Amino acid sequence: MQLAKVERHRLIESVVSRKRVGTQFELLDALASSGCAVTQATISRDIRELGLEKTHDQFGRPRYMLPNAGRRTDPAEALNSVLGQFGRKVTPAGNIVVLQSELGAAPAIARALDQLGHTRVVGTLAGDDTVLIVASSERDARALARELATTRAHGSVPRLKLRRA
Q: In this predicted model, what pLDDT tens digit does every residue of 121-138 receive, in sequence order?
């Protein structure tokens, strides 16, 4: 079925706001599933006209978003969400904290920690299901491990010590 441009744009906005669509071909398939048959060239024009932004989700996968869509800008909220959903175990080891997560979630957790700007975090390194968080001392690592374990269990970051910009 062919839709007028206004209706097609409305459908595209609905699709990209409800699900992760990372390529023009994924959008083409999603529209086809909704009964709207269009060409890739039309999709390309629509994306440009709507001003859709190509970003990445919390797992680093590409996705289109509506311009100025309500993005999570609070780093503590992002960490609460990803750690609460996907964090599994937090263990201090010397001046390092080892954080185990669901498979594929470690990069998102590391990114959230990096964006948080916590004073005890020197840096992070993420694999598929493990994040190594480097602290400046063993004492800081133990305190950070306690904070992260609390965040994982309760979904909130306690008494943050954030770097000032």
A: 999 999 989 999 999 999
